[in-house]
Design brief:
The protein is an alpha+beta fold and 127 residues long. It is 24% helix and 43% strand. A six-stranded antiparallel beta barrel has the order 1-2-3-6-5-4. A hairpin with a 2-residue loop joins strand 1 and strand 2.
Length: 127
Amino acid sequence: MRTSQCRGRLYLNGRAVGKIAIRGWDGPWGFGEFRADPAFAEFAPLYEEWSRLMHRPEIARRLTDDVGDALRKVENALYAIEARIYIEDMQVWRKVDILTIDGMLIEWKEGWCDCEQPPVATEGAER
């Protein structure tokens, strides 16, 4: 894993929703600590449900059909959210294909994009 100490801002559907203390990357996967802004409240229930399902005891033994179905529904809803990260120290945008938030821990898989333009709402971020 490539370690780093960068600051970032998470944008969901074009809205700034929190700050990220980026700890590093492993290939396309980024890792860090997330501190939510009040705007994250709109998205928090989905991420909390994902985390609750992932920490169910039966996940460790065997994924049951009902938990698998519930997890699939939550993950589909999460994939529908457009996520981007503005890395303040590098002044670059990163497109996020997969994003998980579990308490203060955040993990994302970056996808390719021409991310020169910021998302629609850019409050608090610079180009």
